[in-house]
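User: Here's a chain of 263 residues. Predict its fold as tokens.
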Amino acid sequence: MSFAKPPKDTSLSVVSVLRTERISPNFVRVTVGGEALSVVGDHGFDHWFRLFLPREEGRTSFSLPDRVDLLGYLKFLRMPEAIRPYLRNYTVRAFRPESRELDIDFAIHGDDGIATRWATRTNPGDTVALIDQGRGFEFSAQAAHHVLVADETGLPAVAGILRDLPRDAVGTAFIEIAHAADEQPTDAPAGFDVRWLVREPGEQPGKLALDTVTSWPLPTTELAAYLVGEQSLATGLRRDLVARGVAKKAITFSGYWRMGKQG
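Assistant: Prediction complete.
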């Protein structure tokens, strides 16, 4: 099952960087804010959005469409490339509507990606824009056990889901990270087993989580799964779970990125 459609009343929010913080060896947290966040709904769980970043050279125009549907995306592509912002998808790490502040956690992998470079170099006062896309996770009251799996790019989504799940929810979360110090506190329900998987230096991201979960004995109760991160992790685990009897409709998955491909 893919992510749900975005809210119908989405709107463009042009905001400013308020502060940045290196919260662990491989994560930078950027806090943005401004009155424009008043139009953003507080969806919780894995609330995500389209993020428009300034170009690395020259001037950037943030005169953008309010939606990223087919028409809106075509309008975006028709902008002159020299002033068109970079477009990426990100998850809300924390949203404080009362103070019009939103935290975004960036997983830092070297200096190859546009978003990585921006997160490590941006300064307070810099401008970005975002369009709310709602959430992808929907809680299944029928499932007796919830399985959440992610690499570090999906950590904010899984952390948000653990925070907002009903307190009597039961399940297991597998979160792969590059360094033990990247582990973050999670407000998980008491019935959740949160397992941090630290991969070896040089190991392909997502492989440790994939290998761990494919060899994990599934609970015998009805299952719901949420799988995000590197493409082969999300699709590989979906195939494995379906082969082991989990209904396709009980699996939400998304390949956030693909090894060897930027953007």
